[in-house]
Amino acid sequence: MNFDLDGHIMHAPITGANGVVNSETIFRFCQEGDVVRASYAGGKVRFGELIGRLEGDALEFRYCQIDTEGRLDGGVSKCSIETRADGALRIIVRFHREACGTRGINIIEDAPEGWQE
Asked: What are the residue ranges of helices labelled H in 1-60?
């Protein structure tokens, strides 16, 4: 299945305990062909950017972010995308933070209708 993330605004309702992204982090996606980009901020993340490639339901990206305490971090994520029963998209993100060597899983989903940014 081919997915189109362009224009999607997503949040992370489920996050790894060792990550910086949390339920207050908002992602804004753009996609051109197989290239996916997103900027994100909120919660513990002051600002972040990701760029990657999408092939079918597999998304792989590199990210760089700065947290609210001024720490710069980055890493790589391998993801799978699925469609929920209500038609919203869900991205299962398996991340590796290179600065500290930790790994974890975040779930990013389409923000609900009427989401207040």
From this structure: none
Amino acid at 1: M
What would the pLDDT profile of 50-77 be if each residue is shown by its tens digit?
999 999 999 999 999 999 999 999 999 9
Distance of CA 9 to the CA centre of its chain: 10
CA–CA distance, 61 with 5 (Å, rounded to integer): 13
Radius of gyration of the chain measured on its C-alpha atoms: 13
The CATH architecture annotation of domain 9-18+26-110 reads Beta Barrel (2.40)
In 1-117, beta strands by DSSP E: 9-14, 26-32, 35-42, 45-55, 58-67, 72-83, 89-97, 102-110
- 0.90 exceeded by pTM: yes
Residues 27 and 65 sit within 8 Å (Cβ to Cβ)? no
Question: Using the 8-state DSSP alphabet, how is residue 43 labeled?
Answer: T
90 burial type by CB count under 10 A (0-12 exposed, 13-18 middle, 19+ buried): middle
